[in-house]
Amino acid sequence: MHEPKTLAERMSGRISLVEDAGGKKTLVGKPLRSTVPQGRIVEMHLPKPPKNLIYVQNTEIPGSKKITLGGVSIPILSNRNIQWKGQEILLAAGPNSEELEDWLSSVKIDIDSRAKGEGQRLIEQTFEKGDPGASFRDAFQVVEEFVELLPSVDTRQFSHSVCVRDGSHYVMHTATPWPGSVRGQVANVLKIDREQISVRSYPVYQGLGLNFWNPTLEACHVALLSQRARRSVRFSGVLSEAFMSEIPGAKFQLRAAVDTKGRILASEIDFTVFAGAFLPLENEFLQRIVLGLFSFYPCANYSIHGRIARAPHAPSSIPPAAGFELGFLAGETLASKIASSSMSTPSVWHRESLQTIDASFGSGISTPKDFPILALLDEAIEVSDFNRKNAAYEQIRLARRLQKRIPNHYGGIGLSTAWFGNGFLSSSRRLNSASLSLTLSRDGKLEVGLPTHKFDDSLKEAWSRILMNELRINRDLITFSFKMSIGDLEPGPSILGRNISIYTRLLNLAANELAKLRFREALPITVTRTHRRGGIGSWDAKLFEGSPFETISYCVGIIEIRLSTITMEFLPVRVWLIIDGGSILAPKSAKAEVEASIQKTLRWCGFRQERNQFPSVNIKFHESISKRQSKDVSTIPQLIIPAALLRAVRQATNLDVFRLPITPDSLVELRKHR
Amino acid sequence: MKISFVLNGEPVEIDTMPHRRTLDLLRESFQIRSIYYRCNNRGCGLCLILLDGNPMHSCLIPAFELRLRDIWTMEGISARKEFEDLVAGFELANAKLCSFCAPSRALVAEALLKSALNPDMKQLRFTAEAVKCSCNSTLRIIDGLEKAAEFRRERLRVSKV
Q1: What digits encode the pLDDT tens for the residues A270-294?
Q2: Which among B78, B99, B135 has the least Cβ separation from residue A17?
Q3: CA-CA distance, A39 to A112, in Å (whole number)?
Q4: CATH of the domain spanning A19-117+165-239
Q5: What stretch(es) of chain A map to CATH 3.30.365.10?
Q6: Which residue spans of chain A are classified as CATH 3.90.1170.50?
Q7: How far apart are CA A666 and CA A570, in angstroms?
């Protein structure tokens, strides 16, 4: 695998990407996609292909006709039933791209679009505890909320995969956050031994979401063509917008029974996630939404009904926190409403609610010894001057009718809290596996062996510092290699903060072991450390109690906005984030990543960055006592910002804004219907 | 159609279809690897080249437009000493550009510094927004551009106005 190059090498373009793989004799591959979302193929007429052009249909797949990823099985090619618009029906490859396109355009397919395809099932789950009905009867107040998040598409999606044939060996060139899944799936589809396949992984383009089903599916397509043609084949292209994968949207209907002190006694929540034909990691996604809905606030009685509605679009990508984004948005918006309808100010309500947390928070997650949320909240309120600003904006909101002239801007401020669990809830071995090796050679060189390349320069530098301290070794002697050998554990996806939390722990463990062995055993010494989801407390997936994650990052965020009364556009002015990310390995890089994440989230929420000034950002890392543990900090703004922004926009507009992304049109529409 | 132009300071000539995309021509016929095909509609800025000193999207330029023009890509720019200013600027600003956007960001930065050694905020923002990649925030990119400008002024011994 390719080691990420230095900044100078990257800036000069001296880095090879997937499209650079393969030689001049590599065939060009293309799929024929369905132009209708659903239907049944009645008849397909294939004209005689030109010389050197080959094609593959569903019936000609030698092995498995589906790939299984994150609990869902996605068909490699459509058989008779079409399940989404853009689904691949046929694959073809040839030496000449134009000739190939001509042939594909002459294929005639008769599709009965009245016939319903497969995959129209609705996944439903209900999570219940206690007696919410009784709590609602006895409640001092019932607070209701409705939140809607529209699906979003990252329009810069592309498809590049290359399969290089070397005799009976297949080298898959792919850019995916989960290279470990490619080898197994391709072997199953081609019905060959895994040892005949190796994977070369390339950098992944950072889009809005995480799409790991498409690179795996495409790798299978290109491998099928390569097997048939006995030649190397490449897939290269940009997906049409109609065929792109979306990040799911959702609708939440929330009710909470509250006592005289503003504490949540019970909640009833009903939500629907709108996904494409498939949603990889759907169970994980649903459970993470529910965990996000609770946020930090304990609730003894609840009834949560969640469902995933599938539509005949391309399978969905998942957002970077795999569902927490949606859950925290709805849960924290409800919390804001309870806070504003309580007798105390929002900061006091948050403080009192968080103060009552002792052994567990949210649904029943065990609190660590150094639970930092109160300290984070106090600091955020102090540095942002939240109480004063909130009182001022609230005063203006309430006295709006008395104002004789409309100002150019109204202001608003929102506060939100969130936590982020590093890793998966699922105990699946395929998702959780990770391994790292340290090899100290005879000449004193230390090689860090990692299974995937997705580790940036700053993380490598931070790891080098750990190794220099632990083993008293020069930086020049430390090298990083990225390979997945045949017998190795196939690593799980590099998502959900696993790189930083799990691999840093493995590195520490391996370095400790190597420090002990280096004077006892003969060189070279190799120490390997493997992670198979061990060492964490129990997690009750039914009751949502216990310790679901190895490490949890915490954050309190405040956002101050201005809303133009002329254009109805919101402008974020300042953002404060106080984050507990454990031991921060590279503070400057971590800060840069958090900033980038804030920008991405604000765009996702409807902020038009191109026309406006970027807000002033204040990020502070609160280092807890668990010095050795490092946690992900780059995902957490995506859990904090949407809810805080929604609250700030509500204050500035004096409207019950319920939909993200927030657009001037939607605000004007709301005002009309008030 | 025979088309001659100057690529990275070297005069070149090629016989090709006039409607062929400049992006494909440069990648396939001249092994230019610093431009990428990602959006096909001016949406990402990863295919930017300097056409007579101006950043242009090579995915939108037909090959015949190159006739007698001066083309620069990062392969050529990075061979010059001034390239060090760009690297040092972005490194000092801690903008760890990703593999995709790094060449395009460097290219537009070079175009900016060629036209303005003391870029104002409007120019900086325009340059930072020319490449749509979410690996770094706009603030970080602007900081990198400002620092690169400082290094360039130092190299040319020009003081800030």
Answers
A1: 999 999 999 998 888 999 999 999 9
A2: B99
A3: 5
A4: 3.90.1170.50
A5: 359-426+548-674, 434-531
A6: 19-117+165-239
A7: 12
Secondary-structure percent of chain A, ordered helix, strand, coil, rounded to 5: 35, 30, 40
Query: Is the confidence metric ipTM above 0.90 for this complex?
Result: yes
Nearest CA-CA distance, residue A371 and chain B, Å: 30
Judge residue A618's burial from the number of C-beta atoms within 10 Å of its C-beta, 0-12 exposed, 13-18 middle, 19 or more buried: middle
Residues belonging to chain B with any Cβ–Cβ distance to chain A shorter than 8 Å: 32-40, 43-44, 73-75, 77-78, 83, 86-87, 90-91, 94-100, 102-103, 105-106, 129, 132-140
pLDDT at res. B63: 94
Backbone φ/ψ region at B69: left (φ over 0), alpha (ψ -120 to 50), beta: beta
Residue at token pair 């129990």 = A538
List the beta bridge partners of residue A169: A166
Nearest to A16 among B33, B83, B137 (CB): B33
CATH 3.30.365.10, domain A434-531, yes or no: yes
CB contact set of A365 (below 8 Å; sequence gap of 6+): A291, A544, A545, A546, A547, A548, A552
Q: Where are the alpha helices (DSSP H) in chain B?
A: 22-24, 30, 74-77, 83-92, 102-115, 121-129, 138-156
* Distances in whole angstroms, Cα of residue B48 to Cα of each of A69, A160, B27, B105, B107: 36, 20, 13, 9, 7
Closest-CA residue of chain A to B131: A610
Give the nearest chain A residue to B74 (CA atoms).
Answer: A12
d(CA B118, nearest CA chain A) in Å: 20
What is the DSSP pairing of strand A197-201 with strand A233-238?
unpaired
CATH C-level class of A359-426+548-674: alpha beta
Q: Are A583 and A628 in contact (CB under 8 A)?
A: yes
| In contact, B133 and A206? CB cutoff 8 Å | yes
Q: Give pLDDT, residue A2.
A: 47
Identify the top-confidence range among A318-322, A393-397, B153-157.
A393-397
CA-to-CA distance for A368 and A421, rounded, in angstroms? 13
Lookup: tokens for A230: 């006995």
Residue for token pair 């668990």: A626
Q: Does domain B83-156 have CATH number 3.30.465.10?
A: no
**Which residues in A335-374 are b (16+ Cβ under 10 Å) and which e?**
bbbbbbebeebbbebbbebbeebeeebbbbbbbbeebbbe
Write the DSSP symbol of residue A1: -
* B137/A592 Cβ within 8 A: yes
Q: Identify the pLDDT of residue A646.
A: 96
Q: How many residues make up chain B in this entry?
A: 161
CATH for the stretch B2-77:
3.10.20.30
| Nearest alpha-carbon partner for A533 in A437, A432, A436, A611 | A432
For A155-195, the pLDDT digits (tens) are 666 778 999 998 889 999 988 888 888 988 999 999 999 88
Q: How far is A209 from chain B (nearest CA, A)?
A: 11
Task: Please report the sign of the dihedral spanned by the C-alpha atoms of residue B88, residue B91, residue B93, residue B96.
Answer: positive
Instruction: Report whether A391 contacts A399 (CB < 8 A).
Output: no
- Which part of chain B has CATH 1.10.150.120? 83-156
Q: List pLDDT tens digits, range B29-54.
A: 999 989 988 776 767 889 999 999 99
Are the CB atoms for A295 and A264 separated by under 8 Å? no
